[in-house]
């Protein structure tokens, strides 16, 4: 039996949600690890004003705390913390959102799911539910139509892995071979889309993306309706169109051109329809399937 020690770096970023960050870290650091695995916890705090960094230092001294400048957003923060962890040349990188509360033994189950995949060059997605309705919130999606970008959520099976192309990084395990093949999250994105881009890029490069069996924790769905109501002033709607935490217009077009080039014109039209005529779009949206 091999006596190799497999080293895992967990990667998370936080910004002004101290209680959720503390709850996440508590659930992570209480995880039992299988023999031959070690865990180093990295957290980037993007200059939170609510005392997040101080609470982490006080309660979790083992966490490797990295400080941001307050303008990194999610993708920028995750790139920075991942870049720091790369210096340690880990066997695995486990990406987590700081609003996830992990189930007991979630990390052990995730590593067991990785073993089911066999060999190397895999991304494993851990699905999460909401806290109240016991309903899937984040995990993996499979593309049902590459022409228009439609996709469906992958409901986890109890025992087997299921393939996906789009993955949320709420819980995402990435092995070293994947990082050596495609690197880390793309510089093309400020906030959202970077995790979907990463898994799509992985698939294109022969890396398998899997939804692990079962569920791994809880996390509320917080994306809401991805456009502003017609009651909002036009200037505000246009600002939202370009905002990295809104529709991220320019970055979304980059994403589409990279992965769904045949539907760029259609998607751009819908972005402007959401912005200029949201009432019309709302009626139109009722007939659409899930799409990127």
Labels describing this entry:
292 residues; alpha/beta; Spore Coat Polysaccharide Biosynthesis Protein SpsA, Chain A; 10-stranded mixed sheet; 3-stranded antiparallel sheet
What does this structure look like?
With 292 residues, the chain is α/β, with parallel strands linked by helices. The chain folds into two domains: 6-218, Spore Coat Polysaccharide Biosynthesis Protein SpsA, Chain A (Alpha-Beta Complex); 234-285, no CATH class. Helices cover 36% and strands 24% of the residues. The protein contains ten helices and 13 strands. It has helices spanning 18-29, 52-59, 73-86, 106-117, 176-182, 194-204, 234-242, 249-259, 264-276, 278-285; strands spanning 6-14, 37-45, 64-67, 92-96, 101-102, 122-129, 136-138, 140-145, 150-153, 162-163, 166-167, 171-175, 208-218. The strands form two sheets. Strands 1, 2, 3, 4, 5, 6, 7, 10, 12 and 13 form a ten-stranded mixed beta sheet that branches. Strand 8 (140-145) and strand 9 form a beta hairpin. Helix 9 packs across helix 10. The chain starts with 5 loop residues before the first strand and ends in a 7-residue tail after the last helix. The mean pLDDT is 93.
Instruction: Give start-end ranges of low-pLDDT stretches.
Output: none
- Determine the oligomeric state from the structure: single chain
CATH architecture of the largest domain: Alpha-Beta Complex
- Helix content estimate: 25-40%
Please state the CA-atom Rg, rounded to the nearest Å: 19 Å
Q: How many helices?
A: 10
**Run of helices and strands:** EHEHEHEEHEEEEEEEHHEHHHH
Portion of residues in beta strands equals 15-25%
How would you state the average pLDDT, rounded? 93
State the end-to-end CA separation.
Answer: 45 Å
- Would you give the CATH topology of the largest domain? Spore Coat Polysaccharide Biosynthesis Protein SpsA, Chain A
Main sheet specs: 10 strands, mixed
Q: How many domains, in number, for the residues?
A: 2
Count of extended strands:
13
Q: Helix- and strand-based class?
A: alpha/beta
Principal-axis shape equals globular
CATH class identity of the largest domain: Alpha Beta
């Amino acid at each position: 039996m091999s006596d190799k020690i497999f080293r895992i770096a967990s990667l998370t970023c936080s910004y002004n949600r101290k209680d959720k960050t503390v709850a996440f870290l508590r659930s992570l650091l209480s995880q039992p690890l299988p023999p031959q695995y070690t865990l180093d916890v990295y957290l980037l705090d993007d200059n939170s004003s609510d005392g997040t960094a101080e609470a982490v230092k006080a309660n979790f001294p083992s966490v490797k705390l990295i400080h941001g400048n307050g303008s990194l957003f999610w993708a920028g923060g995750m790139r920075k913390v991942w870049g720091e962890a790369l210096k340690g040349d880990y066997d695995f990188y486990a990406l987590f959102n700081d609003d996830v509360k992990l189930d007991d033994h979630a990390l052990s189950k995730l590593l067991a799911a990785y073993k089911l995949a066999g060999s190397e060059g895999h991304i494993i997605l851990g699905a999460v539910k909401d806290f109240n309705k016991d309903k899937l919130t984040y995990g993996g999606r499979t593309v049902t139509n590459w022409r228009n970008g439609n996709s469906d959520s992958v409901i986890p099976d109890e025992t087997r892995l299921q393939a996906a192309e789009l993955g949320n990084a709420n819980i995402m395990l990435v092995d070293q071979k994947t990082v050596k093949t495609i690197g880390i999250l793309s510089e093309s994105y400020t906030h959202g889309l970077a995790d979907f881009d990463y898994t799509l890029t992985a698939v294109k490069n022969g890396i398998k993306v899997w939804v692990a069996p079962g569920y791994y924790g809880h996390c509320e769905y917080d994306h809401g309706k991805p456009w502003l109501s017609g009651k909002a002033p036009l200037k505000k709607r246009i600002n939202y169109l370009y905002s990295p935490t809104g529709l991220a217009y320019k970055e979304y077009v980059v994403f589409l051109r990279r992965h769904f080039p045949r539907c760029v014109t259609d998607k751009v039209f819908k972005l402007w329809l959401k912005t200029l005529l949201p009432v019309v779009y709302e009626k139109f949206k009722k007939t659409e399937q899930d799409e990127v």
